[in-house]
Amino acid sequence: MRRLFAWFYLWRNHLKHRWTFLLFSFLAMQANADLPTPVDPSNGSPNGNYLVFMQGWTGDAIEYIALAISGAGFLWVGWILLSKFNEARSSNDPDWGSVGLTAVIAGVLLAVVSFFLNEAVGII
């Protein structure tokens, strides 16, 4: 009798795990069905070619990196100009020519860096 109860206990647990497995399998299929489709890169649709897909997204990532570098340069130059202006304003003998020269050099530097980053994005 003890063997019969042991067999029934094992069979019942096996059946319980089977239904749990089927339930989780069904839920996994439902979750997989709701996944979004990947967005195509900005330079066109790769039509199933994953190498072209990754090259397109690499190009987009480089554009975003170039934008971040330009933004960081703009903030850095703005900080330098503000500190130079504050130094001239708080000084007893302000040197406004130095502030103007720093502004001109910073503007040229930003223009050159933005130009080179734009050219690099076009090449890649």
DSSP summary, beta strand count: 0
The geometry reads as elongated
Largest sheet: number of strands, sense, barrel closure: none
- Report helical residue fraction: over 70%
* Class inferred from helices and paired strands: mainly alpha
| Total domain modules | 2
N-C termini distance:
77 Å
H-E order: HHH
Instruction: Indicate the low-confidence ranges by residue numbers.
Output: none
Assembly state (oligomeric): single chain
Residue-averaged pLDDT, rounded?
A: 76
Indicate the radius of gyration in whole angstroms: 32 Å
How much of the polypeptide forms β-strand, as a percent range? under 5%
Number of helices: 3
Describe what you observe in this structure.
This protein has helices spanning 2-33, 50-90, 96-123. The protein is an all-alpha fold. It folds into two domains: 1-35; 47-123. α2 (50-90) packs antiparallel against α3 (96-123).
